[in-house]
């Protein structure tokens, strides 16, 4: 029972490099989310996809792009990584309006 | 006013005591409320969901919801050192937006 799977688990990049974080869920959920979590900042929503074929900005979208490839997969791309994007990134999914989100294990990203 | 507010703590309780974690929210017509536990270096894990006023019990955990006062709480009975973690309150607003609080750090000392 995999739930939400994120790859990679760890990554180190140099400033200016690009990178795509992958997320896949096997729970047939409609909505998917990307968060970043920094010390003392809580979870901040980057982008979300309410359903297959739609994406919307969250509270901190600058420097990121997303693709909802199909119902299962939702990727997050950093086109030109910056040290300020060093963070732990979580993908989450949920089924419907009043249901909780379920999280992947996270990707720990360091940008030098 | 933040949409979901929690005391950041840290909250320190002795082993065996009751830990009480509180959360207030601003959207009066919010419908769904959740508590997540996050161990250091791990992802948030759902531990309780509550949708109606009153108490909901699951093992050592009790969630309490008071919509009139716009607060939701989590009680952990017989606290164990393994309960030491950050506890996140999450609320779904009337528009379906799920918002997390900043989290309360709980430390249970032997």
Instruction: Summarize the largest interface: chains and residue counts.
Output: A-B, 14 and 19 residues
The radius of gyration computed from the alpha-carbon positions of chain A, rounded to a whole number of angstroms, is 13 Å
Strand content of chain A: over 45%
Counting helices, strands and paired strands, the structural category of chain A is mainly beta
**Alpha plus pi helix count of chain B:** 0
Low-confidence stretches of chain B: none
Overall number of strands of chain B: 11
Proportion of residues in helical segments of chain B = under 10%
Shape of chain B: globular
Task: Provide the residue-averaged pLDDT of chain B.
Answer: 94
Give the helices and strands of chain A as they follow along the chain. Answer: EEEEEEEEEEE
User: What is the terminal-to-terminal distance of chain B?
Assistant: 37 Å
Helix residue percentage of chain A: under 10%
**Would you report the number of β strands of chain A?**
11
Which sequence of SSEs, written as H and E, runs from N to C of chain B? EEEEEEEEEEE
Report on the architecture of this protein:
The complex is a heterodimer of chains A (112) and B (110). Chain A has 112 residues and is an all-beta fold. In chain A, 0% of the residues lie in helices and 52% in strands. Chain A contains no helices and 11 strands. In chain A, strands 2, 4, 5, 6, 9, 10 and 11 form a 7-stranded mixed sheet that branches. Chain A has a 4-stranded antiparallel sheet with strand order 1-3-8-7, with no helix packed on it. In chain A, a hairpin with a 7-residue loop joins strand 9 and strand 10. Chain A is globular and about 40 Å long. The model of chain A has no long low-confidence stretch (mean pLDDT 95). With 110 residues, chain B is mainly β. Chain B is 0% helix and 55% strand. Chain B contains no helices and 11 strands. In chain B, the strands form 2 sheets. In chain B, strands 2, 4, 5, 9, 10 and 11 form a 6-stranded mixed sheet that branches. In chain B, strand 9 and strand 10 form a beta hairpin. The mean pLDDT of chain B is 94. The interface between A and B is medium-sized, with 14 and 19 residues.
């Amino acid at each position: 029972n995999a739930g939400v799977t994120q790859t990679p688990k760890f990554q180190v990049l140099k400033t200016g490099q690009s990178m795509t974080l992958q997320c896949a869920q096997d729970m047939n959920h409609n909505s998917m989310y990307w968060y970043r979590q920094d010390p003392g900042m809580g979870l901040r929503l980057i982008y979300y996809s309410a359903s297959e074929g739609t994406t919307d900005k969250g509270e901190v979208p600058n420097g990121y792009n997303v693709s909802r490839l199909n119902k299962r997969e939702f990727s997050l791309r950093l086109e030109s990584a910056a040290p300020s994007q060093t963070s732990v990134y979580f993908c989450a999914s949920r089924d419907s309006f009043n249901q909780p989100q379920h999280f992947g294990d996270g990707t720990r990203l360091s940008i030098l | 006013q933040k949409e979901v507010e929690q005391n950041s703590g840290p909250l320190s309780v002795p082993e065996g005591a009751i830990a009480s974690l509180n959360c207030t929210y601003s959207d009066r017509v919010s419908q769904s409320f959740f508590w997540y536990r996050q161990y250091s270096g791990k992802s948030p894990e759902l531990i309780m969901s509550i949708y109606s006023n009153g108490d909901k019990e699951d093992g050592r955990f009790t969630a309490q919801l008071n919509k009139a006062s716009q607060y939701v709480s989590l009680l952990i009975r017989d606290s164990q050192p393994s309960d030491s973690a950050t506890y996140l309150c999450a609320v779904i607003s009337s528009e379906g937006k799920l918002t997390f609080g900043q989290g309360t750090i709980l430390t249970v000392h032997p």
